[in-house]
Amino acid sequence: MKNLTSTLKISLFLFLLMIMTACVSSAAIQPVESPEPPTDTPLPQIDTPVPPTSTPTETVTHTPTATPTMTATKTSTATPTEEPTATPTFTATAVPQAAAPSNVIVKYLVHQGTGGSTGCGDSLVPVSTGFLPTGDVKADVKIAINSLFSTGTKYVGNLYNPLYQSNLRVGKVTFKKATGELTIHLTGGFTKPKDDCDKKLYRAQVWDTARQFPEVWRAYIWVNDKYLLGDLLVVGDG
């Protein structure tokens, strides 16, 4: 009896073991089939990057066409160069050369800042003394020089008189007609200008007033029979 029961237990155990092995074998075979379907899904992703490659080629062709439009603006800048050339022509005519009144003895005063060749860019202007020429060079020179030094004021209207501080008069005049040499002897008080431009103007006033007569070629002017007026008016000597 014991042998029968043990035999039944063994056969039951074997039957259960077979059932279990069958279940295990069926469960092991099923996972192998699941990985195969995913192999088909990555294939569509390869086709998506292809369309974007056609779009960048169109954007590059449009950028060079906008640059040629800038060259048209540079051509209009060449025209303004014609305007500045017209302005310098007016300054060249701003220095009038004053003419002495005809048949009148004159003295010379200064028109400042005219761009002339006298002093420091100034010009001499003839002013009538109110006397007519006598025909005697010595007498006419004396009239002209005395009228110049008797002006007495620094300005006559808008004309400048840098020798207004000197109190000089003509003492004697000698003239050599053959050589055109004129000698003037001045007496009185001489005041030397401090400004170098005034020194040049002082000299120009006296010499041009003395040499306004065509017979006079050169002039020597003495002050108190001691000094030449030209030496006293040396530029740069304080």
In short:
With 238 residues, this protein is an alpha+beta fold. The chain has helices at 2-29, 43-47, 56-62, 71-74, 88-91, 137-149, 196-210, 229-232, and strands at 106-111, 123-128, 155-156, 159-160, 167-176, 181-189, 218-223, 227-228. Helix 6 packs antiparallel against helix 7 (196-210).
CATH topology name of the domain at 106-232: GMP Synthetase, Chain A, domain 3
Gyration radius, rounded: 60 Å
Mean pLDDT: 75
Portion of residues within helices? 25-40%
Spatial strand sequence of the major β-sheet: 5-6-7-8
* DSSP summary, beta strand count: 8
Oligomer: single chain
> Beta-strand level of the residues, as a percent range?
15-25%
**End-to-end distance, in Å?**
165 Å
Specify the structural class. Answer: alpha+beta
The CATH level-2 architecture of the domain at 106-232 is identified as 2-Layer Sandwich
Task: Write a structural description.
- With 238 residues, the chain is α+β, with helices and mostly antiparallel strands.
- It has a domain at 106-232: GMP Synthetase, Chain A, domain 3.
- The protein is 34% helix and 18% strand.
- It has helices at 2-29, 43-47, 56-62, 71-74, 88-91, 137-149, 196-210, 229-232, and strands at residues 106-111, 123-128, 155-156, 159-160, 167-176, 181-189, 218-223, 227-228.
- A four-stranded mixed β-sheet has the order 5-6-7-8.
- Helix 7 links the parallel strand 6 (181-189) and strand 7.
- Helix 6 (137-149) runs antiparallel to helix 7 (196-210).
- The chain starts with a helix and ends in a 6-residue tail after the last helix.
